[in-house]
């Protein structure tokens, strides 16, 4: 080595001296055989933690290990290595922004309509009950509810999916096909793969209505998804919900009158009231005190003729009507009924009547009996009936029922 150093040029000697200084600074021993691990090690530009190489590459191009040629060689080797790594990587497309996820449509498994109630005009419900079209009417109301955009039509396939595969399911595919066939021309019509919904006025005309009398009420959506008996019960209850005043029940009404208006016979009325747990309040009227003599007998005959089997004798043991122990003529009045549906705006009824304005109207009504039940005595005194009938106003409560005072024309 000494002989080589003596025969070497001054430039080479300076380079070797520089190399020895670098070895001493980095604590790298010289003239030692490489270990097996070091033989398999990566080149300096591939290995991690090579502080010396990093320092050399971090310096400007004209600096390095004291040799500009060595610095250039190392930089070129590192550039070739990067090119080989890039060529070995699989071809990939540039990352594009993700498109927005489309919102779920009414035909999805979870429809977007968050409204939990459907407005129902009681007169339409009565027409469906009278015509035996409660199931088809239920489907028509649900289709209108699902038509949030107001297009007036549904695709047949989308409707089939909604009514049989989503939370709005209430029947199978075969039953749905039967309902669509039975309701064609009354509630909807088919065309171009779509089901076109008829307007409320056209449906009312098809059901035989010529005027809407009662204000709309809000029926819960879940009431439409049960058995058809439950749907009929709710359609029947819309009559009482429309007549109620806030939390107070409506005025007394006879079951025969209810049957004539709704098309539901008295036996079914009681069944529906029990099914829906409807508030049914009994009412009795308290008439004149029972007296002896011919005048008392004439009064008893008049009351018996007017009220028949509903007449009975009431003994006032507690003295609520006067002295204790007195007896009065009393008779049972029709029941009063509470509401189970919230009242809606009257605008729906007015719009329906405007659509029905060209249809035949009812008669003038001169043969009808005047109003019979009033909220208080002031309204009763101002009433002018068309026939000589008894008129009533409430006076108090008894248990679950209510007592009414009576004003009779022709009886003094």
SSE layout:
Elements (H helix, E strand, L loop, with lengths): L1 H6 L2 H17 L9 H4 L11 H8 L9 H21 L28 E4 L1 H10 L2 H13 L6 E3 H10 L7 H11 L4 E4 L2 E4 L2 H7 L10 E4 H4 L3 H16 L11 H8 L3 H11 L3 E10 L3 H15 L3 E6 L9 E12 L4 E2 L3 H9 L21 H6 L8 E8 L2 E7 L5
Helix pairs in contact: 6-12, 7-9, 10-16, 12-14
What does this protein structure show overall?
With 412 residues, this protein is an alpha+beta fold. Among the domains are: 117-262; 280-336 and 374-412, no CATH class. The protein is built from 17 helices and eleven strands. The chain has helices at residues 2-7, 10-26, 36-39, 51-58, 68-88, 122-131, 134-146, 156-165, 173-183, 200-206, 221-224, 228-243, 255-262, 266-276, 293-307, 347-355, 377-382, and strands spanning 117-120, 153-155, 188-191, 194-197, 217-220, 280-289, 311-316, 326-337, 342-343, 391-398, 401-407. It has a five-stranded mixed sheet, with helices on one face. The protein has a three-stranded antiparallel sheet with strand order 1-5-9. Helix 7 crosses helix 9 (173-183) and helix 12 (228-243) crosses helix 14. The model is unreliable at 34-40, 99-108 and 359-368 (pLDDT under 50).
